[in-house]
């Protein structure tokens, strides 16, 4: 069976959640024409390795599709060890995100597959203390041991652990060969099926768009990764762009309601806030670096299997404070809730604007009546 057919079907399986900010890891399986796919999406949590192993016990061979901002390092290492023992392949498309602990899982694949335009992001392991990311020597030692077991060279270990927790070393189809890592790249030619190259680096092309109809599109698609921020397009909000940062137990998203307006919103979610109710109002205060708080009602909004809080913003000064700030304090009903680091917010905002402009141009090209 042709590779293009298999991966176009597989692309249906990696559903990018929207308008979700944060989601517990989902580990699901599908089978097409005798090929087994294991899909890991969302935050990797403790004991996810046990769930994965129960699936791995069933399949002798599988392709592991990845879409995650990371999570629990030890669980990720155990999943990677299982993948290597089973001889599974791993795959990241250019429409999905795979950074931090997810990148460690990807390294275990035999082969490791990557879209020509995709990237996999690495940084040092860390512990989260009151919103501060402190590098973990113990965690880095575990990662170093794991990479050694994968028979990866010292320069790979350094690449995977040298970036600070606030930054990323990005592995791409262009730079992997200099890092001592074998990668199978999947390349697509315009208006044709993906083609596997006959010489290294071979490639696999897949998109998180529900085929076969070209008019169909995912609810959310990736624009670009910028440091610890992920810039995406929300197709349920009139092509509005947003920036997302994942803090483990919390997720913070900020963006525009639609591509050609400055109607803004901030969205916050926490995996442990189980008492939140959809459509109910909660008074939040958002404070950037000690500035005057932004206080107002946030509405409970369904995000996968949890409820998050969305606050609409109508003042451009919100963005002015966002781009120059390093931290965000959130209070609920006058009491402290969480403090988040938002380093790199200016770069994230600049990329949101580029994304917005691109969406406007793209829409006007396809819709001549949109003036």
TrEMBL record:
It comes from the Bacteria. Keywords: Signal. InterPro entries: ClpP/crotonase-like_dom_sf (IPR029045). Residues 1-24 form the signal peptide. This is Uncharacterized protein. The lineage of its organism: Bacteria, Pseudomonadati, Pseudomonadota, Alphaproteobacteria, Sphingomonadales.
């Amino acid at each position: 069976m042709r590779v293009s057919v298999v991966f176009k079907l597989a692309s249906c399986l990696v559903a990018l959640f929207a308008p979700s900010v944060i989601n517990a890891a989902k580990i699901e399986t599908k089978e097409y024409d005798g090929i087994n796919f294991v899909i890991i999406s969302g935050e990797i949590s403790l004991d996810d390795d046990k769930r994965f192993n129960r699936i791995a016990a069933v399949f002798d061979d599988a392709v592991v599709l990845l879409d995650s901002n990371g999570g629990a390092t030890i669980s990720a290492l155990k999943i990677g060890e299982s993948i290597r023992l089973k001889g599974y392949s791993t795959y990241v498309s250019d429409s999905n995100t795979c950074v931090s602990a997810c990148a460690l899982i990807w390294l275990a694949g035999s082969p490791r597959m990557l879209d020509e335009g995709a990237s996999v992001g690495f940084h040092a392991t860390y512990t989260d203390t009151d919103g501060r990311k402190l590098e973990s020597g113990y965690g880095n030692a575990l990662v170093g041991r794991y990479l050694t077991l994968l028979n990866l060279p010292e320069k790979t270990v350094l690449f995977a652990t040298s970036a600070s927790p606030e930054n990323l070393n990005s592995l791409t189809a262009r730079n992997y060969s200099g890092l001592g890592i074998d990668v199978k790249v999947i390349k697509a030619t315009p208006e044709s099926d993906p083609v596997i190259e006959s010489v290294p680096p071979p490639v696999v092309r897949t998109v998180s768009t529900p085929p076969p109809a070209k008019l169909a599109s995912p609810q959310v698609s990736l624009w670009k990764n910028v440091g610890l921020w992920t810039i995406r397009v929300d197709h349920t909000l009139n092509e509005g762009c947003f920036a997302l940062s994942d803090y483990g137990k919390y997720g913070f998203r900020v963006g525009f309601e639609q591509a050609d307006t400055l109607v803004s919103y901030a969205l916050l979610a926490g995996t442990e806030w189980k008492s939140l109710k959809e459509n109910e109002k909660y008074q939040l205060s958002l404070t950037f670096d000690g500035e005057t708080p932004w206080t107002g009602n946030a509405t409970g909004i369904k995000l996968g299997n949890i409820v998050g809080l969305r606050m609409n913003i109508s003042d451009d000064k919100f963005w002015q404070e966002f781009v120059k700030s390093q931290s965000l304090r959130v209070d609920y009903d006058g009491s402290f809730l969480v403090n988040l680091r938002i380093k790199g917010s200016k770069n994230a905002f600049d990329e949101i604007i580029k994304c917005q402009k691109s969406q406007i141009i793209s829409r006007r090209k396809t819709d001549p009546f949109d003036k």
